[in-house]
Description:
By secondary structure, this protein is α+β, with helices and mostly antiparallel strands. It is 45% helix and 14% strand. It has a single domain, classed as 3-Layer(aba) Sandwich (Glutaredoxin), CATH 3.40.30. Helix 4 packs across helix 5.
Amino acid sequence: xxxxxxxxxxxxxxxxxxxxxxxxxxxxxxxxxxxxxxxxxxxxxxxxxxxxxxxxxxxxxxxxxxxxxxxxxxxxxxxxxxxxxxxxxxxxxxxxxxxxxxxxxxxxxxxxxxxxxxxxxxxxxxxxxxxx
Length: 132
């Protein structure tokens, strides 16, 4: 977990706004966020580099991050697990993601999906969905 100097007023999801798969997942999160507790920022927004310089840009391209109001940043599957505890409609998924001993499987699965997200969502003509 990374601690940032900036403490956003809401849990803030940092994602790749130039990635079709990522944008579709954010659309789902927006629907599931019944109480409006989340904010969303594309990693390409200039405010992200300014407000969250502690998170390496290369890491932002590889995984989604959630920064809580205390400035704690969680990436990848840790961010997903955090969100499952924050959004009531995701609580059933939280039970699955918190089964003892399964974290290595979830980390591998998250990394696999992140690496192949361009194929999952279709190709991007300009390569913006491609991981470095």
